[in-house]
Each structure stands twice: as structure tokens, then as C-alpha cells.
Amino acid sequence: MNAALKALALVAIVVLSMYIAVPGARAQSLSLAGSWSLVSLTVTRSGTEEELLGAHPEGLLVFGNDGRYALVGVRANLPKFGSGNRLQGTVDENTRIVQGNVAHFGTYTVDTAAHVIVFHIQRSTFPNWDADVQRRPFTIDGDRLTYVTPGSFGYGAAKVVWQRMK
User: Fold this and answer.
1) Which domain of life is it from (predicted)?
2) For the chain, what are the domain ranges?
3) Which long-range contacts link 126-130 to residues 24+ away (Cβ below 8 Å)?
4) What is 33-164's CATH number?
């Protein structure tokens, strides 16, 4: 093999390896696996963003490498049960607690081309979502994940922001 052919072969290998590496790097940058902390859960009403779980909500979203996930979001100022027994909550306590949290778990897939998380919800604290499949468009900006939920809570679509935990 002459020197020109060797050089051409080397250039071809380098160029091909660059194209092969790019999709892998892109897929890695879109990886959701790991733990995320809730930053905000907002809905826009009359042009104003409203925090559905109040100021400074707390929550955890875990995407497993095995395709399973678990999500919980909680209002920071949930009331304690006056009786000390969760089975004997007052109507007001129960109402505030139900409206102050959301949780669901199941399996997930990611459509990286369409930037969509597909949640296959097994169970939820909002039973209307049990056994539901929901597609949520998402963006990742650094360590921030933002997606939009469907409008089935009764208040319209909500924007959810998570911060990757380290």
C-alpha cells in the first residue's frame, strides 16, 4: 500500500470515528438515568405562573437504568395531623395533604429524537393516571430537566423543573 493510500485510509478512519462518536455523545447528554430534585411545578393561569405545590416544593425523581422510575413531589408546608394519627385526619388536613402532593411510579422510555419522556404509570396518588401512558416533551439545559405534564389534574398543562442531584 503506497503512502497516499495509507494517508487516505487514516483520514477515512478518523472521519468515520468522529461521526460514530457524535451520536453516542449526544445520547449520553440526553441520559435521564439518576436522581433529580424538584425545583418547581407551575401552571400558567391568566398569564401568571402559579406554583402548584407552593413556594420551595420538595421532591425526588429517580430514573433507573432498568427502565423503572419513581416520582414524588410534596408541598413544603404540609400540615401535621392534629390527632397524630393519619387515619383520623380532619377534612381540612386531608384536603390540604391531598392537594399538596403528587407521586407515581412505573416504567419509562425516552424518545431522544423527539425529546419526549414516555411514562408508563403503574400507580399514582392521582388514581386517574393509574395504568396511563403519558408522553411529556422535555428539554435538558445543563443539569436542569424541564418537561410538560398533560392537563389532566384539572388545571391545565404544568411545567415541571428538576435539578440533577450529584
Assistant:
1) Bacteria
2) 1-30, 33-164
3) 126/102, 126/152, 126/153, 128/152, 129/104
4) 2.40.128.50
